[in-house]
Design brief:
With about 750 residues, the chain is an alpha/beta fold. The protein has 23 helices and 28 strands. The strands form six sheets. Strands 18, 23, 24, 25, 26, 27 and 28 form a seven-stranded antiparallel β-sheet that branches. The protein has a five-stranded parallel β-sheet with strand order 2-1-5-6-7, sandwiched between helices. It has a five-stranded parallel β-sheet with strand order 9-8-10-11-12, with helices on both faces. The chain is flat, with a radius of gyration of 31 Å. The two termini are about 55 Å apart.
Length: about 750
């Protein structure tokens, strides 16, 4: 068991050191050193997150309260009183600061920060305009400032400007700022009598953290609570990086309304995955209403939800929907040992209960292996032959009441295919339910496998629940089937993910490729490239396109068709052409010189009539049939360049069957993207069609990703549609391409 914690913003107290304002005793580090030059990608972005030194925030020796008050009825008075109590709990010296008071609650009060006798670790600002105070704190070697004031980015452009001033006031000073628009949650007491791995909590809305905080009343340890507010400086990512390195933290629970910086969040999630620390998050913004409300609350970008969702999965962040799921999933992941197997056994006293749970669990993707015949025969020593012991295991009820109940549980847990035992108890039926609960707890103490119980009673005051089940640190107890299944899936997925985890950032290119140097010369800032120019970009990166020539006369078109070989395709090429087929600017299957001449005249006439400038007419090879896919690059407001793959042609618009990843990623993620598509079976061959060249498609996705990484600063959008994936072994060909430059 791990040691206990002694405070929300502290875990231990330390001997005091007195240092006058503005004097530094020994080097103090408020963040890790910058990443070395070789630990950045081709665009100069860091490939590792800095871990901020938050020890003095969570384990302060000295605290100053600026704007302290003891006048009853004033909000600052209640806050001051709570901060004094918190400082006493954590063993910190507290200094009230107020220009007109000699004492506050019996403590000597100082007129200004510069008059403080100590170097201050944490300064809490109870003032309306924190900027001048923050500037003064920076001159006095203060490590951390906590700003409660609201009225910043959450209020709109004017507030955002004020928040930018606040952020600028701490930039480069060494002081780190929590807030603004944060709250007292950071200074609430946590129980110090609980043991075991703890949950570290991060919230951008303090009230939303209450359910996780209340888990302490069920015996689940909480080590930290970081209410980040508007994140003018310290952000959610900083706390994830810090908590991931803390030995007492078993899981990180987060309520996130928006992200300050997508890249920082992914680097932090990467650090957590490397340390095998699960991050469970509720992320607001699945709908337009939710995104708009979140922006008005903390003034952050919520991001395109499909990109946020994909990025979280990519880096192992477990996204849940409700606060109840956040509670149950983070509690299970914090306390459960790694699984010995991924098989789930369902054990119940009712065939109906077992069937119901098994149905839901299987639908959610959990594996319920059929127990081997030898195991079933063993179970039938204690269970009537007419009941099923295959999995789910139905005991019929009576064996629970005697010595047979424990024998059944032990036998199921002994099977090597089983890593998790779930016993749904839909309602209390003493004394049988009391003995069943006790047998499950006793068995859990003797096994290294996970034992879960669903206690379905809506009352929750039963002794079997309150005392026996909740009193066990080895049994995971849930109140609903759904939350149990959600948590179990997250538990098994997390351990499967971290066991095979290879950081995507390890695969990021550190230097520009020769392809990038060729491609950069083709970019035209602020312009859409013609299809011909866009395909030159593709060629630079080794992405296959049809044999084709750009011509500016009918005679040249005929010569080109002869060289390429009939039949051919002819298309208008110009910088303003996005949907050529809608305007009749594509001619397919031309088989003779006369058809080519006629097509040339018709294409140029249409372009002239529509007022569309052309750089010429493309005469292209007619590519054989295959599976039409689409691969592209878009720029997300939070994460920067993203890569999307989906069904191509008009299906990408009609079915919206796409998968997305944030670069960098490796081949495993490129293949996983294909697996997420509803139309994935088309690549395997349907209705007699041969299997498509999936390897070539994956290679194309990886080459497009390289373009996103190397050209992301100059390329805002790229669309390969259709990308025809030919029969296995024959490759993939981009028939059309759109490119928009930044």
């Amino acid at each position: 068991m791990l040691g206990s914690t002694h405070g929300t913003l502290t875990t231990t107290s330390r001997p005091a050191r007195v240092v006058a304002c503005g004097r530094r005793q020994g080097p103090m580090v408020h963040g890790t050193a910058p990443s070395p030059a070789d630990d950045v990608d081709v665009s100069g972005r860091a490939l590792r997150s800095d871990v901020p030194d938050l020890d003095r925030l969570f384990r302060p020796e000295t605290v100053a309260v600026i704007g302290a008050s003891e006048t009853e009825g004033r909000p600052n008075t209640g806050i001051t009183r709570q901060l004094i109590a918190w400082a006493e709990r954590v063993g910190a010296r507290l200094h009230p600061v107020h220009p007109t008071r000699a004492t506050v609650f019996g403590l000597p009060c100082h007129p200004s920060v510069s008059d403080l006798p100590d170097r201050i670790d944490v300064a809490v600002l109870l003032v309306g305009d924190p900027v001048p105070v923050v500037e003064e704190l920076a001159r006095c070697d203060v490590a951390f400032a906590v700003v409660f004031a609201s009225g910043f980015a959450e209020t709109g452009p004017e507030g955002a400007t004020a928040q930018a001033r606040l952020a600028a006031a701490v930039q480069g000073t060494g002081i780190r700022l929590l807030g603004p628009n944060t709250n007292l949650n950071a200074f609430e007491p946590v129980r110090d009598d609980l043991t075991g791995p703890a949950i570290a909590l991060i919230t951008q809305s303090g009230h939303q953290g209450r359910p996780v905080f209340a888990l302490q009343e069920l015996g689940i340890r909480l080590s930290h609570w970081a209410p980040t507010g508007n994140e003018a400086d310290l952000e959610c990512a900083d706390f994830i990086s810090y908590f991931a390195t803390r030995p007492e933290v078993g899981a990180i629970a987060a309520y996130v309304e928006g992200l300050k910086d997508g890249r920082s969040f992914l680097l932090a999630a990467d650090r957590a995955a490397r340390h095998k620390v699960p991050v469970v998050a509720v992320k607001v913004g699945r709908t337009e209403v939710g995104a708009r409300t979140a922006a008005s609350h903390t003034g952050k970008l919520t991001g395109a939800d499909d990109v946020v969702d994909a990025a979280m999965r990519q880096f192992g962040v477990i996204r849940v929907n409700g606060l109840d799921e956040l509670q149950d999933t983070s509690a299970l992941l914090a306390r459960a040992r790694p699984p010995r197997a991924d098989g789930v056994a369902v054990y119940s006293i009712s065939g109906g209960t077992g069937a119901h749970f098994a149905d839901l669990a299987t639908t959610a993707g959990l594996r319920l292996p059929v127990l081997p015949a030898t195991r079933q025969a063993e179970l039938h020593q204690w269970i009537p032959d007419y009941l099923s012991t295959a999995n789910p295991v139905d005991n019929g009820g009576h064996p629970v009441g005697d010595w047979r109940g424990r024998k059944i549980i032990d036998a199921i847990l002994a099977d090597p295919s089983i890593g998790v035992l779930v016993c749904p108890i839909t309602g209390p039926f003493p004394p049988l339910s009391d003995k069943l609960a006790r047998d499950l707890v006793d068995a859990a103490e003797k096994t290294d496998k996970l034992v879960c119980v669903v206690w379905g009673s809506p009352v929750g005051t039963e002794d079997a629940y309150r005392t026996t089940l909740l009193g066990s640190s080895r049994v995971a107890t849930f109140r609903t089937f759904a939350n149990c299944i959600t948590a179990l899936r997250a538990y098994l997925d997390h351990h499967r993910f971290t066991a095979a985890y290879r950081s995507p950032f390890d695969e990021a290119p550190r230097s520009l490729s020769p392809s990038a140097r060729k491609a950069q010369a083709l970019l035209r800032p602020g312009e859409q490239l013609s299809e011909h120019a866009a395909k030159q970009l593709l060629r630079a990166y080794g992405i296959r396109v049809p044999r084709e020539q750009l011509v500016t006369s009918a005679a040249a078109a005929v010569r080109a068709a002869g060289q390429i070989g009939y039949p051919v395709v002819m298309k208008a090429s110009g910088p303003q052409l996005a949907h050529k087929s809608d305007l009749g600017l594509i001619k397919l299957g031309l088989t003779s010189a006369s058809q080519v001449r006629d097509a040339y005249r018709e294409l140029t006439d249409i372009a002239r009539y529509e007022g569309l400038p052309l750089d010429g007419i493309l005469v292209c090879q007619l590519v054989g049939r295959g599976v039409e896919m689409a691969v592209g690059i878009t720029h997300d407001s939070l994460f920067g360049p993203t890569v999307t793959v989906g069904l191509g042609g008009v299906l990408v618009e009609v079915l919206d069957d796409t998968a997305v990843r944030v670069p960098p990623f490796g081949e495993d993620h490129a293949r996983a993207m294909l697996g997420e598509l509803r139309g994935r079976a088309l690549l395997d061959g349907v209705r007699g069609a041969p299997p498509a060249d999936v390897d070539a498609l994956v290679e194309t996705v990886l080459r497009v990703q390289r373009m996103a990484l190397e050209l992301g600063g100059g390329l805002s959008e790229l669309d390969l549609n259709p990308l025809v994936v030919l029969e296995r072994g024959q490759g993939a060909v981009a028939l059309d391409a759109l490119a928009f430059c930044r």
